[in-house]
Design the sequence.
């Protein structure tokens, strides 16, 4: 069976090549606030950030559950 491929010169499917719509250039913006705007609150990166946040919540929830009810796991 022949392999189907993209036309030559089309580039990767995940890269749009278009610049960001929200190009904000504030000379008084700090590096931290620029990082928060571009990496944390960016709509393009929201699914990944929600995934990381969910993992952190599940981890600390498990730690809290074991600290609270961990004695029930030890046979008497």
Sequence:
């Amino acid at each position: 069976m022949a392999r189907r491929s993209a036309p030559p010169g089309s580039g990767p499917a995940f890269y749009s090549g278009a610049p960001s719509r929200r190009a904000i250039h504030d000379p008084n913006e700090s590096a931290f606030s620029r990082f928060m705007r571009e990496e944390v609150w960016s709509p393009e990166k929201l699914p990944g950030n929600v995934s990381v946040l969910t993992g952190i919540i599940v981890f600390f929830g498990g730690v809290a559950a074991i600290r609270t009810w961990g004695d029930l796991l030890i046979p008497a």
Q: What stands out?
A: The chain has two helices and no strands. Residues 47-76 form one domain. The CA atoms of residues 31 and 56 lie 25 Å apart.
